[in-house]
Each structure stands twice: as C-alpha cells, then as structure tokens.
Amino acid sequence: MNTIDKQILQIALPSIVSNITVPLLGLIDVAIVGHLGSPAYIGAIAVGGMLFNIIYWIFGFLRMGTSGMTSQAYGKRDLPEIVRLLIRSVGIGLAVALCLILLQVPIRQAAFQIIRPTEEVREMATLYFHICIWGAPAMLGLYGLSGWYIGMQNSRIPMYIAITQNIVNIMASLSLVCFFGMKVEGVALGTLIAQYAGFLMGLVLWMNRYGKLKKYIVWKGVLQKEAMIRFFQVNRDIFLRTLCLVAVTLFFTSAGASQGEIILAVNTLLMQLFTLFSYVMDGFAYAGEALSGRYIGARNRKAFTDTVRHLFIWGAGLTVLFTLVYASGGNAFLALLTDDRNVITAAGTYFYWALAIPAAGIAAFIWDGIFIGATATRGMLLSMAASAISFFAVYYGFHTVLDNHALWLAFLVYLSMRGAMQTLLSRKVMEKSFH
C-alpha cells in the first residue's frame, strides 16, 4: 500500500467509526424510553430528536468550513492562522448556540406548528427540547473542534470523542431513568451530560496534543476583517447548500408519507441502505477534505492530483462492494429491520432503485470532500441547487404516472447530478486553487 492510500485510510477509517456512532445517541434514547410503557415517550424522543437533527444539520457548516480552511493553513504551516481558525470557529459556534437558547421558545412553537404532535407527545417533547437545547454550546463548539481536528489530519480524536459520548449517554440516561425514577427528562439530561462530556474531552485532548500552539493565541487577529469575510463567505455557501439538502430530504419523507404507511415504511427501510453507504463514503470525503486542503496549502499539485485519483479508486471499489452486498443480502437486511410481510413484499418492488444508490452517489461524496478542502464552496452550492431543482422537476414531472417510483428516480437523478456538476467544475476549481 503506497503512502497516499495510507494517508487516506488513516483519516477515513476513524471517521467512519465516528459516523456510525452518531445515530447511536438517538437509538439509545429511543431504546430506553421504549420500555417506559407508553408509545408517547417514543414519540416525544422522535420529535425532539428530529428537531435537533435538523438544527445541528443546518449548522454543520461550522465543521465543514473549518476543516477546509484549517487543512490549507496546515499545508502552508501557518501556525498562527491555524490557531485563529479554531478560536474563530468555536467562538462563532458558541455565539450561534446562545442565539438558539435565547430563541428556544419561538423555535419550538414554530416546529410544533409544522409537526403537529398529539397533546401528550407535545408536552413530553417540550420538556425534552427545553433541556437538550442547553447542549447547543457543547454541540456547536464541538463542530468547530472536530472540523479543526480533521483539518489537522487527525480524525482519531473525533472518533474517541464520539465513542465517549455514547458511553456517557448510556450510563447517564440509564442511571437517571432506572435509579432516580426520571422519564423523558432523565433521557434528556443524559444526552445533555454526554454532549458536554464530549466537548470538554475535545478541549482536554487539544491541550494535551496541541497545547504548544497556545503561544500563537493572539486575540487581535481573530476578528481581522478580511479573514472574517472569507470565513463567512465559505460558510454561507455551505449553509445555503445544506438548506437545499434538507429540503430534498424532508420532501422525500413527506412525499412517501403522503402515499400511505406501507410506502412510508418501505422508503424509510430502503433509505437505510443509502445511510449505511453514506457513513462509509463520508469517511473518505473527510479524507478528501483534509488531504486536498493540505496539498493546496502546500502548493503540491502532484500530491493533490494523486490524492483525488486514489480517492476515486477507493470509491469505485466500495461502490462495487456495496452493490454486490446489497444485491445478495439486501432482503435479509430488510428482514432484520422489520417482520411485516406487507412492507417486505412492497420493498421488493422498489429494491432495484436502492441497488443503484452507490453508483449514483459515489462522485458526489468524493467531490464534496475535495471541494471542501479546496474551499470551493460556491461550486458545491451551485451543484446542490441544480441537483435539488432537478429532483423536484423529475418528481413533479413523473409522479402522476410512476407514483413512488418517481420519487426514487428523482432521488437518483439528484445524486447523479451532484457528482456530474462537480466533475464539470473540478477543472476550474483545480486551476483556481493552484493559480
């Protein structure tokens, strides 16, 4: 195995582990309240969890933007800028979190107007929301820290943090529910404790691993006008891109739900195949962020080009592997998730769409990482906007004829369009990065 492949795997593998542990926080909460005797508890956790997933998803630019800019500064060996980027990102994350805490009541009220839960679920979800919202500083601060670590070519620390958060969440939530007689509030407090445990661990590990960089902390340069403008330009594009992505994802769920419970269940199960693929490919996207930014910062065009080629070789191999695994064992996997024969039978009608997901999505995942590393966020935004438009155009053009098949066709067109658009823009991005 050559040096580039080793570098890719050193970042990708810990990132994959981190990605897989993320949904475990929500699953743990659901598993605990699922034994409290009322389905309303599960509904409250589901509603509250969905709200925070959307909120934190929207502010994911704090991680992605920080990763790209930090990796470039790392390639330049610009240690003062590396430190300024960390302070800038974490500071902005904490400021955003403060705004979320101050606006928690209108945010919750607006969300419930859209979701419209039952009165019992609303009451419990309100309690869950108003406890967990205080975790926003930890979560958004950790976004900045995680992006910075990845930019520094270190994905092991985010992995350690993610694993620790899950262990703390299990111990705290179970203790509060089982030994202190709490219900939804116990699960919410357990989640809150885990979030701050992760953030504090991130700070402690920074002091241990990068404490020598403290001498470069100069507050005057953190708010420097040109640097702040660039920071917000990069993150604005990622923010708008994320809104397009959220719109497609939420519409996909909504359009499936409008076709009845069976179709909603089928789409949800088949989408798990996409989710599994995305956890792995995001790991390689993170490697693309770290390495492409590093080599752009170092002005090493050859290493950059080699990295891109090797990332696509890994992507192609994983696409073939996932397609074969899904083709041979996909139905068995669905049977693990549900024993409803009607749902499993209906899923067979749409299963071939799910088989096409790896091939349709591979380029989008790889290019996303490379574009973030190059801070070519405008290209990401344009690609995502065009892809979202194509998604809605295909769906509304065919849904009266193809029903749920139109939804899956639109989703695959959307994935393919992202990759195709970024492939077309990649030459321009490379020329701009090494001009």
Quick overview:
88% of the residues lie in helices and 0% in strands. With 435 residues, it is mostly helical.
Characterise the protein shown here.
This protein has 435 residues and is mainly alpha-helical. The chain folds into two domains: 1-223, no CATH class; 225-435, no CATH class. The protein is built from 17 helices and no strands. Helix 11 (225-257) packs antiparallel against helix 12. The longest helix has 37 residues, at 261-297. It starts with a helix and ends with a helix. The model has no long low-confidence stretch (mean pLDDT 88).
Mean pLDDT comes to 88
- What proportion of the residues is helical, as a percent range? over 70%
Q: What is the overall silhouette?
A: globular
Please state roughly what percent of the residues sit in beta strands, choosing from under 5%, 5-15%, 15-25%, 25-35%, 35-45% or over 45%. under 5%
Name the structural class: mainly alpha
The count of strands amounts to 0
- Report low-confidence residues grouped into runs of 5 or more: none
